């Protein structure tokens, strides 16, 4: 420290703040973003406009949220990668809770991931059979939910076409086919147990439904983790792509695609553009790339690189690790933002990245992390405010009180978005409820609600076996 004491840090901070300014969105700008999303949502719901909408607003055919009377035993299947999870869930009306009775993991070998569709679904059916045996459930025909983590186009509640394989899967004979039909055929080939019907739903709906059982005011589901998405209960009269005027239907917004038509160009920074250009899917999922966990760490790394090149960090010396794509993990952001241990965490992380740092550097890195995560939180708040205010307006209410079911590590680690909601949706009082296993218990709850509806044919639009789909 020289005779000017802390002045060098103040000067560097002013220059750093200037470089971070594009990430700082005013309340007015956030309201503009909300207005743009509202227009895109209307376009996505339209019968003749949805095909060119960046926000797809997909009908899910789920017509009700839990009312607390659901009960019984249900199965849930969760295929999210190289492991396949099977669960037995019991819903107890008297105690108003869901209990995971047991679960089992089945590995999916590489040869099956790259084999035929018949091999894959036979393997899934075999895993389910083994689990039913272990639980002494073979003699029962239980409703079941299935989380299927691949992009599908839903034609009906029980008909969903696989668009493309992702995550290292490339089973032949499945793309362009109805996965519900393939699952049923595999189970029928075995002949040792049976199922009734299958409903396909997005995993965001599972988040909403798992929270909706605990809080019947929950009518929005939101995921902010590796990716991001939201769903909500829309009035049927506004869902122009589906016949019918009465009641409600859950809409899977697919809001990660917001901005894919260029509508967010004015708030994209140079760093956002690099992240998009170097991603595996340039030009798509614009909104997701600005707020979700898969990309936040890389945005921070690019900012730190720029500041170092400008000699505002690390005496202008860049380590090989900092030069390398995706070495700054998103989890580092929340570690560095920790109120008590953040600076110490920053020092350890910077050392691990091979950087020569001082206290000023650690503080600047923390400021960068706070700025990037705050933008993510505020953009997410603007999008959520759009949905809650739409629900309020749909019902002609001066004020709306509702609950949002949320899941995802980014939300859990960065709850700043709650602070922005008051200003962006002043006529709405929002409670946040963290989901407990949306892909497992949530799938079971979708099935439980469908099972209840099946007892009332006049409102039955969802059959009693559910298949949850993530459009990753």
Would you mind describing this structure in some detail?
The protein is an alpha/beta fold. The protein has two domains: 282 residues, Hexokinase, domain 1; 130 residues, Nucleotidyltransferase, domain 5, CATH 3.30.420.40. Helix content is 41%, strand content 19%. It contains 16 helices and 14 strands. Strands 1-11-10-9-12-13 form a six-stranded mixed beta sheet. Strands 4-3-2-5-14-8 form a six-stranded mixed beta sheet, with helices on both faces. A hairpin with a 2-residue loop joins β6 and β7. α2 packs across α13 and α11 crosses α13. The chain starts with 6 loop residues before the first helix and ends with a strand.
Number of strands: 14
The appropriate CATH architecture of the largest domain is 3-Layer(aba) Sandwich
Low-confidence stretches: 1-10, 457-466
CATH topology of the largest domain: Hexokinase, domain 1
Based on helices, strands and strand pairing, what is the structural class? alpha/beta
């Amino acid at each position: 420290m020289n005779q000017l004491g802390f002045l060098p840090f103040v000067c560097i901070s002013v220059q750093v703040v200037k470089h971070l300014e594009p990430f700082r969105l005013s309340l007015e700008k956030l309201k503009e973003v909300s207005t743009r999303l509202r227009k895109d949502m209307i376009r996505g719901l339209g019968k003749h406009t949805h095909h060119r909408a960046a926000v797809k607003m997909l009908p899910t055919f789920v017509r009700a949220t839990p009312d607390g009377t659901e009960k019984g035993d249900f199965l849930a299947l969760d295929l999210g990668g190289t492991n396949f999870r099977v669960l037995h869930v019991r819903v107890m009306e008297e105690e108003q809770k869901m209990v995971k009775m047991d679960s089992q993991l089945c590995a999916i070998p590489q040869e099956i991931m790259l084999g035929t569709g018949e091999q894959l679904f036979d393997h899934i059916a075999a895993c389910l059979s083994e689990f039913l045996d272990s639980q002494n459930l073979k003699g029962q025909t239980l409703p079941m939910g299935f989380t299927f983590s691949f992009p599908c186009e839903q034609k009906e509640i029980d008909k969903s076409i696989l668009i493309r394989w992702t995550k290292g899967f490339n089973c032949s004979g499945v793309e362009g086919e109805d996965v519900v039909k393939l699952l049923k055929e595999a189970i029928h080939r075995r002949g040792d147990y049976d199922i009734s019907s299958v409903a396909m739903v997005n995993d965001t709906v599972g988040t909403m439904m798992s929270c909706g059982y605990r809080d019947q005011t929950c009518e929005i589901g939101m995921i902010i983790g590796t990716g991001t998405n939201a769903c909500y209960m829309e009035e049927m009269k506004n869902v122009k792509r589906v016949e019918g005027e009465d009641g409600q239907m859950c809409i899977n917004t697919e809001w990660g695609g917001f901005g894919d038509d260029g509508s967010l160009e004015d708030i994209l920074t140079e760093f956002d553009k690099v992240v998009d250009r170097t991603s595996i899917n340039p030009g798509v999922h614009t909104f997701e790339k600005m707020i979700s966990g898969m990309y936040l760490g890389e945005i921070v790394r690019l900012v730190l690189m720029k500041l170092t090149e400008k000699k505002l960090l690390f005496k202008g010396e860049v380590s090989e690790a900092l030069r390398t794509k995706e070495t700054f993990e998103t989890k580092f952001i929340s570690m560095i933002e920790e109120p008590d241990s953040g600076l110490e965490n920053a020092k350890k992380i910077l050392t691990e990245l091979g950087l020569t740092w001082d206290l000023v550097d650690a503080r600047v890195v923390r400021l960068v992390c706070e700025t990037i995560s705050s933008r993510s939180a505020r953009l997410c708040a603007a999008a959520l405010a759009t949905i809650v205010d739409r629900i309020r307006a749909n019902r002609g209410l001066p004020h709306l009180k509702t609950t949002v079911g949320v899941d995802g590590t980014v939300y859990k680690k960065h709850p700043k978005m709650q602070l922005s909601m008051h200003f962006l949706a002043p006529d709405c009082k929002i409670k946040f409820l963290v989901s407990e296993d949306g892909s497992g218990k949530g799938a079971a709850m979708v099935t439980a609600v469908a099972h209840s509806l099946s007892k009332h044919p006049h409102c039955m639009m969802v059959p009693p076996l559910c298949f949850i789909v993530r459009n990753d």
